[in-house]
Design brief:
- By secondary structure, the chain is α+β, with helices and mostly antiparallel strands.
- Helix content is about 30%, strand content about 20%.
- Among the domains are: about 1-30; about 50-240, no CATH class; about 375-495; about 565-675, no CATH class.
- It is built from 19 helices and 22 strands.
- β14 and β15 (about 395-400) form a beta hairpin.
- α8 (about 245-255) packs across α11 and α13 (about 500-515) packs across α14.
Length: about 675
């Protein structure tokens, strides 16, 4: 609490000062992403991942059709091992803007949502496109539209796009969607998904059964529809949400090149270690990164930082009275009041996710090449072993040494046969400056008369086995005095100190940064390509196959609204960003070709949602305009219900109702339940 000195001679001042102190001590947290500042609809730099994949140099889109072909194309660009790289669920009765398009045949025309969960292939141009939790697509077959949320590396944000004409007979075109409209629900400026148990999706057996009944030619039983991918998409949306945290800290939390270099160093160690850990004991990590970030945090955000959530309330489509409108303001997913070790490490983990497995494989191979060209002294850790079960066929050894900085602990399992040791497994291994107990993979095993040698590696990822320090585990040896398996052996672990090459490269970049304010550590958006290219050049690598982001974003179509009279003209600043399209959701009652009858048809519901700001809330639905739109228009949402604009809109809509429906009907509208009011959207016909 700030020091507040009271002057008792001034009447009332002690109370004011006390209130000031309490207010300062309880400062509200700042939002990492503020939906009231959505940014321009078109990318300020670069282009979306979707555009990088499917827009040609001529500006036209070449999107595989039908939707299953698009999924196949994405799968061909990705590698996720034995698991599918594209996760998908059906959401026949949801809460998207396309929700009423298939009515009343929701299960014949279900909306399908996909999310990318794989690493890019390691060959060709696609190797540079990080797609995991950076591309989300929804398809509604009734409208021939695709809704796209995909990441833009150069802008450091997700882009919201709508593909029209996706029917196989037209050339599809992707256009940006007004961000203020999208961020009314996507308050995190990123994908959102319902909470467990995902009742709207095909994870719900009741939904799967109805889909199988409506589409017998496609699904033989509900089990073919039932999808476990809902939980995966939920996690992918949450991980996508944390991209904003890494960007925020890189751009605004780390205010010095040294801080960014220390953070980048930790992120690279984390990825090179197989996403295991990084070296937290280096003085620069705490001095330049944690302590520098903590100082800025206290000075700039005394109330802490809040992260908007990616999860919206679950909704059962078969249960009545469950509106659960995603327009309703949601509490933060997390609030961080201070920087601690766990938060700092988590940011390093998230930053590491900006690099592809192909990137890390290249760096791994380059470090080995540099070490072979300029070999440094191998680090050796030694310890004595003892058998925990001497008589067993599978011998278990506990090994260790207690010589300070070179402390070693290991548990090994050996299988022996007539010709000596035939199998070896590292149950756990711990080395200095690496707090994790790791289980390195054995890729080679050779026996000798008095011992056994094993080489380390990760056959699944193709990476070397590296410690939290980024240094490479080369091999290990077990030596016996007589023959393998007889008596207690000695263990030696050999490590190649290779991460020093990256340290030297980072020092070089820092030196260049001091002479050039526009270097890769200068701040701004964390762009994988922009950060990685100078680093690999400093390592003597060829960077020609590093992919540069696009720089020719599509231009949005001009927004044209209807001419409005009197107080109804206020609908333009508060409602036009969302209600000028030609789609039924949200209804385009302000589009240029909308007749006056459109406003009259929508007025009863518009007025009810507007009155909800001061009257009784409508169950499961937000007041309108939503708080985000009000803030976006430059008005304080807390002052909105008492503002002149609010009262002018209410009175103008009341007058419109009187003119169109008469006093008796208009009064009845005010007393009626919201769902009994005339629909603003004309019903879709079969």
């Amino acid at each position: 609490m700030p020091a507040c000195k009271m002057n008792s001679r001034v009447a009332g001042l002690p109370i004011l000062l006390l209130l000031y102190c309490l207010d300062a001590a309880q400062a509200a947290p700042a939002w990492i992403v503020d939906a009231a500042h959505p940014g321009p609809d078109t990318p300020p730099a670069g282009e979306s991942r979707f555009d990088q994949l499917y827009r040609g140099r001529d500006g036209g889109y070449r999107i595989p059709y039908p939707f299953d072909k698009l999924i196949e194309d994405l799968e061909s660009r990705l590698d996720n091992g034995a698991e599918p790289a594209v996760r998908q669920v059906f959401v026949p009765i949801g809460r998207s803007l396309q929700r009423d398009a298939p009515a009343p045949n929701y299960f014949r025309y279900p909306r399908r949502v996909i999310a990318v969960d794989g690493e890019p292939v390691t060959a060709g141009n696609g190797a540079g496109l990080t797609m995991k939790y950076r591309l989300f697509v929804a398809h509604q077959p009734r409208t021939a539209n695709l809704e796209i949320i995909s990441y833009n590396d150069a802008a450091g944000r997700f882009e919201f796009q709508l593909v029209e004409g996706y029917d196989g007979g037209h050339e599809p075109y992707a256009k940006p969607v007004p961000r203020v409209m999208c961020l009314s629900c996507h308050q995190n400026a990123a994908p959102i998904f319902a909470r467990n148990p995902w009742s709207e999706t095909s994870f719900n057996f009741a939904v799967a059964r109805r889909l199988a009944e409506a589409l017998p030619d496609r699904f033989a039983s509900p089990l073919e529809v039932l999808s476990l991918d809902a939980g995966v998409i939920d996690v992918l949306a949450e991980r996508a949400n944390y991209l904003a945290v890494a960007q925020f800290v890189w751009q605004r939390g780390c205010t010095t090149p040294e801080c960014r270099a220390a953070l980048l160093r930790a992120a690279l160690q984390y990825r090179l270690s197989g996403d295991a850990n990084f070296d937290r004991e280096l003085p620069g990590y705490r001095r330049d990164y944690i302590d520098g970030l903590a100082r800025n945090w206290r000075d700039r955000w005394p109330g802490g930082l809040a992260l908007p959530g990616s999860r919206i309330a679950d909704r059962d489509p078969f249960a009545p009275g469950q509106g659960k409108d995603p327009l309703l303001p949601r509490p933060p997913q997390a609030i961080w009041h201070e920087v601690d070790d766990a938060l700092a490490a988590g940011i390093a983990f998230r930053l590491g996710g900006f690099f592809t497995l192909a990137d890390i494989r290249r760096l791994d191979r380059r470090l080995i090449q540099l070490a072979e060209a300029a070999p440094a002294e191998t680090i050796r850790y030694r310890g004595d072993c003892r058998a925990l079960n001497p008589a067993a066929e599978r011998l278990r050894l506990a090994c260790g040494a207690g010589d300070g900085s070179r402390e070693l602990r290991a548990t090994l399992e050996l299988e022996s046969g007539p010709r000596g040791i035939t199998g070896l497994r590292v149950v756990s291994l711990q080395l200095p400056r690496d707090p994790n107990l790791i289980q390195p993979g054995i890729v080679t095993l050779t026996s000798s008369p008095l011992g056994v040698e094993a080489g380390f590696g990760d056959p699944d990822s193709g990476l070397s086995q590296r410690l939290a320090t980024g240094d490479r585990l080369i091999s290990m040896g077990l030596d016996w005095d007589r023959s393998p398996g007889e008596g207690d052996p000695r263990l030696e672990i050999r490590v190649s100190p290779e991460f020093g090459f990256i340290d030297a490269a980072l020092e070089r970049l820092l030196a260049e940064q001091s002479r050039n304010t526009g270097g890769s550590l200068a701040g701004g958006v964390f762009n994988r390509q922009a950060v990685l290219r100078p680093l690999v050049l400093a390592l003597g690598m060829n960077s020609r196959d590093w992919i540069a982001p696009g720089d020719t974003p599509a231009s949005p179509p001009p927004r044209v609204t209807a001419r409005l009279r009197g107080g109804l003209a206020l609908l333009d600043p508060y409602c036009a960003p969302c209600h000028t399209g030609g789609d039924p959701n949200p209804p385009g009652f302000l589009s240029a070709d909308a007749p006056d009858a459109a406003l009259a048809r929508c007025a009863p519901r518009m007025l009810a949602r507007l009155r909800a700001w001061k009257g009784t809330p409508i169950a499961g639905r937000s007041a309108m305009p939503p708080a985000v739109s009000i803030a976006f228009s430059g008005t304080n949402a807390s002052l909105w219900p008492s503002s002149d604009h609010y009262h002018s809109l209410v009175s103008s809509l009341e007058n419109l109702l009187l003119e169109e429906y008469g006093a008796s009907t208009a009064a009845g509208f005010r007393q009626a339940d919201y769902d009994r009011l005339p629909s603003c959207v004309a019903e879709f016909s079969e």
